[in-house]
Amino acid sequence: MKKALVLGGGFAGVQAAIDLQKTKIFDVTLMSDRDYLFLYPTSIWIPTRESTFDNAKISLRDIQKANGFRLVIDMVKEIRTYEQIVIGGTGTLHYDFLVIGIGAGKMMPAGHEHTLSICGSPESSLAIRDRLDALIERGAGSIAVGFGGNPKDVSAVRGGPAFELMFNIETMLKKKKIRDKFTLTFFAPMAEPGARMGKKALSMIDTMFTTSGILHRYGKKIQAFTPLGVTFEDGSQLDADLVVFIAGAAGPSVFRSSDLHLNDAGFIKIDDHCLVEGTTNVYAVGDSAAIEGPGWRAKQGHTAEVMARVAVFNIAAIERHETERKGYKEHLSIMCIMDTGNGAAFVYRDSTKNFVIPLPVIGHWLKQAWGTYTKLTKTGRMPRIPGV
Ligand SMILES: Cc1cc2nc3c(=O)[nH]c(=O)nc-3n(C[C@H](O)[C@H](O)[C@H](O)COP(=O)(O)OP(=O)(O)OC[C@H]3O[C@@H](n4cnc5c(N)ncnc54)[C@H](O)[C@@H]3O)c2cc1C
Question: pTM value?
């Protein structure tokens, strides 16, 4: 049997390993530096204590047991496609087919050490929680939440969780009856943060900020973060006790020490079949890949899974000497349940449609139910509903 090696135990890598194993024509190994899949979409509730760190984790060993592939917990140090090897911290793995899905790295703006990110290491969600706890204990304070982009790749920006976290903090403070003691400010260097979700979503966010008294600073480039808050390029300052900032994404550093073709932002260049440029047996899926397509395209969990399925279909077709191939671009969409702590809105965009459905109360429970569903299906305790 040929060896199929999958790198990364996130949405992309796990989906690829499960689907490769299902073909029954490969010896499949999943290699990841963490022994759990982190459910980033539901991790937004860790800082506000509505959920726990453990609740956002799915053990990769449980997923492995349910699906049967091999699991190696190790960090990828270098990928050498010409030699068909991956060098890890504790050993080297050979492959016939490789699927790369180790997610994205982050840009490092000046003074980033004075900020915390809800999109960084899973543990940063706990650090935000502890800083929020301390401010609540103090009884008053100012909190700034924002996000930035990467000018070298329009898809390397993640604003949704910043909005969600801000709304959840506001809801939590209201529940504790101390909202009036806190100043909440949302900031972003672009004039219309969140514009990729479409005009309806933008106007909904605007209305929600106004009704909940959340201030905003848009369209000012960030010069640096300091212990006092944020300094903008025009010299103005946003003072804050706590700054949560999601920096623009960039390709992980391990890609630069590998023989991969990268775009200017450091993501792996692929074709529509998710095949890595210049190779015949290496695929890149999820946040690691340089996604091409419409200006509103986004790196999202469901896109990562679609890309993994596309890559596995094409790998299996090659192995079976079949000519049919699948592409990921026709499946590009934005799909998210944007949570507010007491409700949510379903935001959808593809090449033909763009709509927002407000889901007061039920949206919040739907997103929680998605977390449970994902845990049950990935560990084989419930069959997956087609298309969900
Ligand atoms: C707070 C937050 C909320 C989000 N909400 C939504 C949402 O509501 N809907 C949605 O669709 N998307 C959402 N996203 C985006 C979504 O989570 C990502 O697009 C998705 O996780 C990408 O999957 P991935 O497998 O490509 O990368 P990741 O999930 O980042 O997984 C990468 C994996 O690779 C491993 N890894 C990294 N480096 C190495 C290395 N050197 N060696 C070995 N292993 C390595 C990591 O441990 C991890 O297991 C959200 C993201 C965040 C951060």
Answer: 0.97
